[in-house]
Specification:
Length: 329
């Protein structure tokens, strides 16, 4: 009994060792024991082959089960591409939505107010178009149009549009919008004041209409940009919603100024007296003699709106994501 138990334990240990591929000397054991080892513990070569076979079977079976049960979310790159495409589409739609809002709330009122101020400066105040008083009056009118248009638009939106506010109204901070209106109105004062002197200078050089158009675009875009940077410098202290000039907002200020330049360039087309044969905007936004002041102001607003929409739509299409002023940055 004792020998049998000892042999059994030896066999068990040897079996474990054999299965792990460790060589064992069985010459000192009885032949019956050796036969038991042989029958109970197959050779390491046999184990290796079987283990290899089992491994191949497991490896070949597992992927079929895995991919058969996997969902589309297993491939993150697929979701990323789909999500990226959706995000780009939404971002583009947001760009054009903001563009339309700005056109209605600021660009049309700016053109309308500039033209109204020019009538005030000429007919009532007696300023000539080449005087400093005329330029300042029209610049002030431009600024008032932007500021009032911005504030009225967002006040009405807050009261009338249902959105994410707790009271069911649009979640709009009017303190922030008033300060934004001051910032944009200040910049509009610069570009609005510059418009008549720039046009006078270019027309005085007897340049072709297109060169006057482009020169006014560049000159007033520069004026608006300088106005933005100046307003940020002075208003960022007392107004918490106006950011101090930085590299980041300089890029967005430049893109907005470029679009504003488009509005001022198209405004040149309202002058029906300068090289009318070259004025490609004459039949669209030309202000002719005999028109009522109200009609002239409305056409002026339409010209700036058309110019801004043309310029900004182009920028919306070609600018990289996150680099444009209307990307929410």
């Amino acid at each position: 009994m004792f020998f049998s138990s000892a042999v059994t334990r030896s066999i068990s240990i040897a079996r474990i060792i054999k299965c792990r591929g460790i060589p064992v000397d069985t010459s000192n054991l009885p032949s019956s024991s050796r036969r038991q080892f042989s029958s109970l513990a197959p050779s390491s070569d046999t184990n290796y082959k079987k283990a290899s076979t089992n491994k191949r079977e497991i490896h070949s079976e597992s992927p079929r089960l895995q991919y058969g049960a996997v969902s589309a979310s297993y491939f993150p790159e697929t979701n990323t591409k789909s999500s990226s495409s959706s995000n780009k589409k939404n971002a583009m739609m947001e760009r054009f939505k903001v563009t339309a809002e700005v056109t209605v709330s600021k660009i049309f009122p700016a053109g309308f107010a500039w033209q109204s101020s020019s009538i005030l400066a000429d007919s009532i105040l007696g300023y000539t178009p080449d005087s400093v008083g005329f330029a300042l009056t029209t610049g002030f009118g431009d600024a008032v149009g932007v500021f009032v248009g911005h504030c009225v638009y967002f006040f009405a939106k807050k009261k009338l549009v249902h959105a994410n506010g707790s009271d069911g109204k649009a979640n709009i901070d009017m303190e922030k919008e008033v300060q934004t209106g001051l910032l944009l109105g200040s910049a509009a004062f610069f570009s609005g004041t510059a418009w008549q002197p720039v046009v006078n200078a270019l027309q005085g050089m007897e340049l072709p209409f297109f060169q006057v158009f482009v020169g006014t675009w560049i000159g007033c875009a520069t004026g608006f940009y300088l106005g933005l940077r100046t307003a940020r410098t002075f208003l960022s202290g007392p107004l918490k919603h106006v950011h101090y000039p930085s590299f980041e907002n300089s890029r967005t200020d430049k893109s907005l100024s470029l679009a504003i330049g488009g509005a001022t360039g198209f405004f040149v087309g309202t002058d029906a007296t300068y090289l009318p044969a070259e004025n490609f905007l004459l039949n669209v936004v030309g202000i002719h003699e005999g028109m009522s002041p109200e009609t002239g102001c409305a056409i002026a607003g339409a010209s700036t709106s058309l110019g801004f929409l043309t310029a900004q739509s182009t920028l919306n299409t070609i600018y990289p994501s996150g680099r444009l002023w209307n990307d929410g940055k």
